[in-house]
Design brief:
- Two copies of one chain form a homodimer.
- The first copy, chain A, is built from ten helices and eight strands.
- Chain A is globular, with a radius of gyration of 20 Å.
- Chain A has 230 residues and is an alpha/beta fold.
- Chain A has a six-stranded parallel beta sheet with strand order 5-4-3-6-7-8, with helices on both faces.
- The interface between A and B is large, with 81 and 81 residues.
- The structure holds a DNA duplex (22 and 22 nucleotides).
DNA sequence: GACTGTGAATATATTCACAGCG
DNA sequence: CGCTGTGAATATATTCACAGTC
C-alpha cells in the first residue's frame, strides 16, 4: 500500500485554489508569496497553507522569504496532475449549461471545452456558441472519438445519474455534476457534486445561530495583506 | 457560551440536502425513510445520517421503522431556519447571473428572487426576465427597501468583494459568491464561495492517484436502495 | 527579522458496535 | 427482525509552538 502519498481532499481543494491564485498573479518570474499572503487570499490560516505545501515535496519554499510563484505553481501542477490540457464537454445545454459552455476562463485553466450535448434538437439549433454541439444520442461516440476526459453535467435531476454513467462508460474520468442530486460514478472515475440551491440553504442555515462568518476564517474580514490583481 | 447547540458545518450541509430530498419526495403523509435510504441518496453512511439527525432534537425517528418524511422535513426547517421565505437578489447579470436569475427552483426552495443588478445599462435593457432588474448604483437602496436578505454574487473576480460588502452593508446576511476569489464578509453575515473552475481542478486532481471515487462513499456506485423520483 | 517546515497537542468528524424499542 | 440513538474508539484535520535557515 501507500503508492504515493495520498493528499487529503481539503488540501487538494486549497492547493487547487492556490494554483488558480498563482495563475492570477502570473509572475513566472521570481516574485514570491508568503504563506500568510496565500492564506489571506484563501480564507485559511498560514499554518494550514504551509502544511498543504509540504504535500508537494521539498525544496519549494525559500527560507526567510516565501515561495517563488513560478515554482509553486509548477509543483502544484505536478502533484495535482494539472499540467496537461484536458478536453471537456458540457452535457445539457439549458441556461446553466449554455452559460458554462460560453464561459471563457476554461482555456486559461487548462481545459478545452470541445463539445456540448442536449436532447432537444430545437435547442441545438437555436444555440449560439463557438463550441460544437451534438444531439444527446451521439454523446458516447463523440466523447470516445474526441478523447474527452471531463464532463460537466447540467441536465435536470432525473437525467443526471444516467448522463454521468454514459459519459464515464465512454471514457470520461472526471464529472462535475450541477444537478440537485448526488451522482455516483464507477470507481474508475471521480465526481464532484455542486448543488447551487443547496449552497443557498447552507448559507442560510449558517447565518442562523452565528454572528460571525464561518468560511472566512481567523482574521475576520480585514483587507487582504498584499497583492491586488490590478 | 453555548447559546443553543451549534451544528457542525458538514452536518448542516448534509441536513440541508436531506431537506431538499424530503421536498423532492413530497410525501407530507406518513411515508417513511430509513437512515440507510437517506444515506444512499446523499452519498454518506447511515451512521452519519443518524448522528446528524440527533442535532434536530428528539422524538424524530420511529424506532423499528424509519423517519416520517413530513416530520423530518419540518424539524430540519426549524433547526436550520429554513421555514421562512427569504427574499434574494442576483448581483451581476452575465451569463451565469442571468441563468441563475431565470432559474425556476428558487420558489420551491423558499427563496423569492426579487431583484437583479448590473452595472451595464445595455445589459439591463437587453435582458429578458420576469424579475425586476436595476442598475448597480441602486443596489444598496433596493436591497434595503425590498428587505433582501440573500445575495447571489456573479460579478467578475475584481468586483466580487466590493459587491458583497455593499450588499451586506445594505442588510444582506447571506452571500453566495460565484466569482473565483474567496470573498469575506463582515461578521453579521455569512458567505459561501462556489468556484466552478476550481471544482473542475479539484475533480481532476482527485482522479489522479485514486482509482475509486471519493465523494461517493461506502457502497461504490450501486443502484440506490429505494425511492426513485419518477 | 521574516520566513519555512514540522513534531506534538488539540479539535473535529466519522465509524464502530451495541443497547433498546416497536 | 429492522431500525434508531448514542457512548466509545478511531480517523482526520487544524492549530500551536518552535527549531532551523537565509
Amino acid at each position: 500500500m501507500v503508492p504515493e502519498k495520498q493528499i487529503p481532499i481539503p488540501t487538494i481543494e486549497r492547493l487547487s485554489k492556490v494554483y488558480g491564485l498563482c495563475e492570477l498573479l502570473g509572475g513566472d518570474t521570481a516574485t514570491v508569496v508568503s504563506s500568510a499572503m496565500i492564506a489571506a487570499h484563501l480564507g485559511a490560516s498560514a499554518d494550514v497553507v504551509r502544511r498543504d505545501i509540504t504535500y508537494l515535496g521539498s525544496d519549494i519554499g525559500n527560507n526567510g522569504s516565501g515561495y517563488a510563484i513560478g515554482r509553486l505553481r509548477e509543483r502544484i501542477a505536478v502533484a495535482l496532475d494539472l499540467a496537461r490540457v484536458r478536453r471537456a464537454c458540457v452535457v445539457g445545454l439549458g441556461r446553466l449549461g449554455s452559460a458554462i459552455l460560453e464561459h471563457d476562463r476554461f482555456a486559461a485553466a487548462g481545459y478545452e471545452v470541445v463539445a456540448g450535448f442536449d436532447s432537444s434538437i430545437n435547442r441545438l439549433e437555436t444555440i449560439h456558441t463557438r463550441v460544437r454541439v451534438y444531439p444527446a444520442y451521439e454523446m458516447v461516440d463523440v466523447i470516445r472519438r474526441e478523447q474527452i476526459e471531463v464532463a460537466l453535467v447540467t441536465v435536470p435531476a432525473e437525467a443526471a445519474q444516467q448522463c454521468a454513467d454514459a459519459a464515464v462508460s465512454a471514457g470520461v474520468r472526471c464529472v462535475v455534476n450541477f444537478a440537485p442530486v448526488v451522482v455516483k460514478v464507477a470507481s474508475e472515475a471521480v465526481v464532484r457534486n455542486v448543488d447551487i440551491m443547496n449552497e443557498l440553504r447552507v448559507v442560510t442555515a449558517m447565518a442562523r445561530g452565528r454572528g460571525s462568518s464561518a468560511e472566512s476564517s481567523p482574521e475576520q474580514h480585514q483587507a487582504v495583506v498584499q497583492l491586488s490583481t490590478a
